[in-house]
Design goal:
- This protein is of the alpha/beta class.
- Helices cover 34% and strands 21% of the residues.
- The chain is globular, with a radius of gyration of 18 Å.
């Protein structure tokens, strides 16, 4: 007798969303992020091999609610870079509404703190990596937009595990993307100013990811993370929860911080 194990999340990544890497933004600072840009090209190539039906995006720039996760139920999303000097042109992605409904039903069955939102505007934290990673795909995937909460780290991880339970029952190929920055306080010129905890936070988190020390990531002191100016560890924890049932190894493709912000590009090799 033969058994087939379907692992529906077959691509998982952490990627940043620096505005200077948006396709329409003209900035001399692009040259400062060549490592990040090259790594995003590598991610795009790896994603093309997977050719996902759906990409789940957890962006630190999404419309977060303090104590509830959200699923965006708009049928399609559009975003542009007009506010940042870009062209008045909308990039459009369709929602996987059927899978979104399945997720909501399951979360409500489990009494998870999840709300529906309806927001057609695509935040740039989602839009930049989506454009960079999907530009060469043979078919355009649908997307699902999720947001994390401000509650404890373990709640984020548990949400990710619940997410994977639903995805395991689907026959779709799914990629999951944590669109986040690491510390926002690495230099005096950084947007949030300098903190000596910033460098320590980035090096610690990367080391724990590479060593697959999820329990230690969940145990990171929230006050330490806040002082370091962390930029979305919740999304990383949700992703870790979603792939917790798999054998996986994290690979850092690049890390750099020329603008005072930690830009990590990495992916998990999922067995």
């Amino acid at each position: 007798m033969f058994y087939t194990l379907f692992i529906m999340i077959n691509f998982a990544t952490i990627c940043p969303h620096p505005l200077v890497l948006a396709p329409e933004i003209k900035s001399s600072e692009k040259n400062l992020l060549q490592k990040t840009s090259k790594s995003l090209e590598t991610l795009a190539s790896n994603l093309r091999k997977v050719s996902p039906d759906t990409i789940i995006v957890i962006s630190s720039r999404g419309p977060m609610r303090y104590d509830k996760f959200t699923i965006n139920f708009e049928s399609s999303f559009r975003g542009n870079f007009v506010d940042f000097g870009g062209d008045d042109y909308d990039y459009i992605f369709k929602n996987n509404t059927e899978l979104s409904r399945k997720l909501l039903r399951y979360f409500r069955k489990k009494h998870a703190p999840v709300d529906i939102i309806r927001e057609s505007s695509l935040d740039y934290g989602s839009l930049i990596p989506l454009l960079r990673l999907t530009k060469n795909l043979d078919k355009k995937p649908k997307i699902i937009l999720l947001t994390f909460t401000a509650t404890d780290w373990d709640a984020q991880f548990k949400f990710g595990k619940q997410l994977s339970t639903v995805l395991e029952e689907s026959e779709e190929s799914v990629a999951i993307m944590a669109s986040v920055h690491l510390s926002n306080r690495l230099t005096e010129e950084a947007p949030a100013g300098f903190s000596p905890y910033g460098i320590k936070y980035d090096s610690t988190l990367i080391k724990l990811l590479q060593e697959n020390e999820t329990a230690k990531i969940k145990a990171l002191n929230p006050e330490f993370c806040e002082e370091a100016g962390e930029g979305g560890i919740q999304a990383i924890l949700i992703t870790l929860g979603a792939i917790a049932h798999t054998r996986h190894t994290f690979h850092q493709l690049s890390y750099e911080n020329p603008l005072g912000i930690g830009y990590l590009v990495g992916e998990w090799d999922i067995k």
